[in-house]
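User: Hey, my collaborator sent me this sequence without any context and asked if I could get a structure. I don't really work with proteins. Can you help?
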Amino acid sequence: MNRFVLSLVCLAGAAHAEVPLTRAPSGHLTAPVRVGTGAPADFVIDTGAEGCAVYSWFAAERKLSTSGGETLTGQEGDADNALVRAPSMTIDGHRVGALDCAVLPDRPDSVRLAGIVGADLLGRFVVVFDTRRMALSLHGGAQHGQALVSPRARLVDVGVLPSGLLTAPVRLNSARGVAVLHTGARRSVFNTRFARAAGLGDGLPPLSTFDLAGRITPAIETPVADLPEFATLGLAERPAMALGLDRLAGLRLVIDYPRRRVWFDPG
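Assistant: No problem. I've predicted the 3D structure and written it out in structure-token form, which is a compact way to encode the shape of the chain:
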């Protein structure tokens, strides 16, 4: 099996518990996740990861049993990884049964992250990822995302990749492209097709403009690279980008996975 893992509320009368988002020293946003009956640990919440992953130290500390292997595609290309069985994962009071998670090498920066929560867990819920209030909440499938957004929220036309990851339409200058929603990425990345379609070279000058759900902002300097992930996702020949935390700052991202609907909400 080939799985894709990138490098890494009180509205409309609806009230729900939530958990804090914390910025790790690495710059990633994490939330507390309980694996099995152990103590909660900090996991990166990544809408751009197809499945869950744990770092090697965490798999060893929690004595997670090996359950096979798979190939992961990341920024450096493909790598063979072991899988371990998480007996359950609990986040914001929601418990999901056994999941097979990839084992990642421990981080060279020594930041003590436990792992990554991906779409295999998030995809069962309506997810509110709030970078303004630094809070995360998960809601059961009976809850409609529409009830969780403010009147200023913008509903976008969602695309679904073969991997199951979600995309949103974006515009760089006059060029249109697709953005993979990637809350696990600290910075966004454009592929070269997108940059060239927008009339840009390898860097983005300050006068460029970026349009996300009608929110037009200056196209701050952003890496341009044809990462292996774009090819894995079938986006190598299309103007595309990974939409990271730098461009999600100040927004509530409401993802209704069961209904394939996404809102960008300035609150």
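In plain terms: DSSP finds five helices and 26 strands in the chain. You can pass these tokens on to your collaborator as they are.
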